[in-house]
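Hi W.,

Here's what went into the run:
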Amino acid sequence: MSLLAGQVATIAGRSVWRTFRQPAVMVANVSFPLLLLAVNSNGLRAATNLPGFPTNSFLDFFLPFSFMQGAIFAALVAGTDLGRDIDTGFLNRLALTPMRGAALLFGQLGGGVALAAIQAAVYLTVGLAFGARFDSGPIGIVVFLVLALTIALAFGSLGLVIALRAGSGEGVQSSFPLLFFLLLISSMNLPRNLISVDWFRIAATLNPVSYMIEGMRSLIIEGWNATAIGLGFMFAVLLLITGLGVAALALRTRMART
Amino acid sequence: MSQASRASVAFAVVYRYVRIQISNPSLFFPYLLFPLMSFMAYAGGLSRLRAIPGFHYASGYTSFQFVFILLQSAAFGGVFTGFSIARDFEYGFARRLLIAAPRRSGLVIGYVCAALVRWGVVATIVTIVGLLARMQIGGNGIDLLGLYTLGGIVNIAMTLWAAGVALRTRSIQSGPLMQTPVFLLLFLAPVYVPLPLLRGWIHAAATANPMTYLLDAGRGFMDGHETHVLLAFAAGLGLAVFFSVWAFRGLQRAEAAGGS
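Here's what came out:
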């Protein structure tokens, strides 16, 4: 067990170091969601005038979007790193060592999750500085951060699956529109009960991302809504388990192939 | 003679660009998917915004968003062309192009024409999707011609902007530099609701943003009520002229650097 932990730490350390060595990637990934937050929280502020809108602050409503986008970037970072390792033959060389597959998978998530943690700290600070209020109080902020990082881990595992399937960093990058699509077809801009187009409301209801967003959002605008928080954690953990399971299978196939 | 050689260089660039797009769907599809996904998300997910007090647009929210998506696709078409120019420099192809072209200004003209061709395909598909989504068109044929002409001007202006960046940096790493200002220009306009419904700093930013007037004029054409038409065409053509100077100066820099 301690051997596995040591292997995870080695791979995770490498992954975190690789991420921090690319300041351009860090800055772009942290600032782009902030830019969207600034523009959309003001551009869509008029939506709070809709009858039944759950809060009068669109910043409060929209803040979880930044964390979700951060999770998508975590997926891209984790996936691109692994894809590059496949591309450059590093994975083949690793296969000759006693490194275990589980260590590789958990370790590769390190860079993405480290980035997600930095993003979360920045978004939370900016959100609070610009007047976001957590109805669930300080403990709610802690739960919010735990949920945000769980979601980042879950998307990171999805990034690993994509990398192992695509086999290149470029393949992972080109999956960005697909991941972003999951975010677009969700309740990120309006509560589901206020979405008037039927097919979109159904799609948003079927989309697990809606529940992840609603879980985070509930801690800001509702306080302690056990159902929303529970669903948020449930879908994040389900995605994480599924992602790691599929990634483990894909890794075994790829190792066998090499 | 020089006009003919410039045209032949431009034609060669367009021909190559179109062939690459056809033979590499992975280069074309992200550009097509981006506006389609945005259209679905905005027209579908935000249509309730038409119920906000003070929101008046007779043709409906789908048409309101269609105009933004059309101009967005035109603008990002320019950015994607900038990526292609930068890639040509990174792979060394642009160096050979600079050596081979008798009139190098034809290269920039060729990239602009190629971007227009590609945007024409995307605009057609987005329009078909809009019609399938029961988008209402209040304007007549002349209005629609005005709308698509505005889109073409935006495409030309943004291609020239991205080309100027690509010709100076000659690296795909400058992608965010091409993309971020265009993104800001687009999203600091009244994207989701009309200008009078915006409040605070974003209202001030939108008022000073030339894209606001292009968007307003486009929405006016779509609705059949012309708004800010002269201002929009002046803003669009002004951007195109300004960025053409930027792009051709960038070409001079690339020539001076030997295309490396």
